[in-house]
Each structure stands twice: as structure tokens, then as C-alpha cells.
């Protein structure tokens, strides 16, 4: 039986992620990675990309899915709920407070300037984990990833199609190389 302290630690970790992250789920990736891989050691560095792939493939926001997967890996269903509440409560509370006062502050030049000032930071936060993932890829795979990102962005192609093609190519390549393809 896992003590309540472990759940509290899990909750607090994801609460910090939820309260200090701006810019949505993708902006949270580097912060989640730092917390669960480097600080806590709950997920191995090599497994984090697989976890993100799974989180991106599942319905729902990537940050919530990642929190649920990490919580489940640590302590089963109770861990999944604990990490989910940890990451959601701060965002929900902040959005509730903003919604209550948004009509009064939406035309405030200071608020507008603050949001404009945060935009490049949010982009940088989103790019940081991408650059980290590229380090581990062979140059040809990094080139394919960059080309696909441009195609998805420029032509508005749904990312589902490249994901399905990538999965099929991965299975076919493993079969061609003679590796066992199993669960």
C-alpha cells in the first residue's frame, strides 16, 4: 500500500506544473519532462518520448494525458486521478478567476501588453522539448520530422495521417529487419 505522502508528492508535482505553466499543453512538455524525468526520476529519459507519443495519440489535451499516464505508471488508478487533479485544479481556478473579471480587464493596455510579452516565451517553451527530442534522432529522421511539421503547418494536413503512415512504416521496417513485432 502506497502511503499518502507519495500521492501528495505526485499531486504537488503536477500542481506546480499546472500553476506555473502558461501557453497550453505543449508548453508544459518541457516542464513535465524536467519534473518527472530529471527531478523525480519517475520516468526514464528514453521512455519519455514514448509516453508523449501515447499522450498525443490519445484523445484529449497532451498535458492531461501525460499527467494521467505518469500517475498511472506510478500508483495505478489512484495515481492517475491524483496527477490529473494536480494539473487541472490550478488551471481551472485561474481560468475561473479570469472569467469572473475578464470583461473588466480585456481592454486594459497593461494586460494586453503582458500577453504580447509572453508570446515569444511560450513559443520558446514549446520549442525546447522539440529541440531535445531532435538530439536523439538520426539526421535523416530529424529531416523527415521537420519536413512533416512544415507540411502539417503549411498545408493544414491532419497529423493523424502522418501518424498512421509512421506506425505502418515502423512496423514494416521492423518486420523487414527481422525483429519481432509484438505487444
Describe the structure.
The protein has helices at 4-19, 25-39, 45-57, 62-105, 109-135, 139-155, 160-176. It is mainly alpha-helical. It has two domains: 4-136, no CATH class; 139-183. α1 (4-19) packs across α4 and α2 packs across α5.
Low-confidence stretches at least 5 residues in length (pLDDT < 50)?
A: none
SSE order, one letter for each helix or strand: HHHHHHH
Q: Tally the structural domains.
A: 2
Task: Output mean pLDDT.
Answer: 85
Characterize the biggest β-sheet: none
Alpha-carbon Rg, integer: 19 Å
Distance between the termini: 29 Å
Q: Which structural class best describes the helix and strand composition? A: mainly alpha
Shape: globular
Strand content: under 5%
The number of helices is 7
What is the helical fraction, as a range of percent? over 70%
Amino acid at each position: 500500500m502506497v502511503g499518502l505522502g507519495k500521492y501528495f508528492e505526485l499531486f504537488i508535482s503536477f500542481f506546480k506544473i499546472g500553476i506555473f505553466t502558461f501557453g497550453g499543453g505543449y508548453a508544459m512538455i518541457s516542464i513535465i519532462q524536467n519534473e518527472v524525468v530529471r527531478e523525480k526520476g519517475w520516468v526514464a529519459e528514453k521512455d519519455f518520448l514514448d509516453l508523449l507519443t501515447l499522450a498525443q495519440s490519445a484523445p484529449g489535451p497532451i498535458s492531461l494525458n501525460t499527467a494521467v499516464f505518469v500517475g498511472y505508471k506510478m500508483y495505478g488508478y489512484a495515481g492517475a486521478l491524483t496527477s490529473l487533479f494536480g494539473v487541472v485544479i490550478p488551471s481551472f481556478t485561474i481560468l475561473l478567476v479570469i472569467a469572473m473579471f475578464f470583461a473588466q480587464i480585456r481592454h486594459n493596455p497593461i494586460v494586453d501588453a503582458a500577453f504580447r510579452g509572453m508570446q515569444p516565451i511560450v513559443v520558446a517553451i514549446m520549442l525546447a522539448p522539440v529541440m531535445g527530442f531532435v538530439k536523439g534522432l538520426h539526421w535523416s529522421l530529424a529531416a523527415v520530422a521537420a519536413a512533416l511539421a512544415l507540411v502539417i503547418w503549411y498545408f493544414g494536413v491532419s497529423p493523424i495521417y502522418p501518424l498512421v503512415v509512421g506506425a505502418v512504416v515502423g512496423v514494416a521496417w521492423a518486420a523487414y529487419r527481422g525483429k519481432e513485432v509484438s505487444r
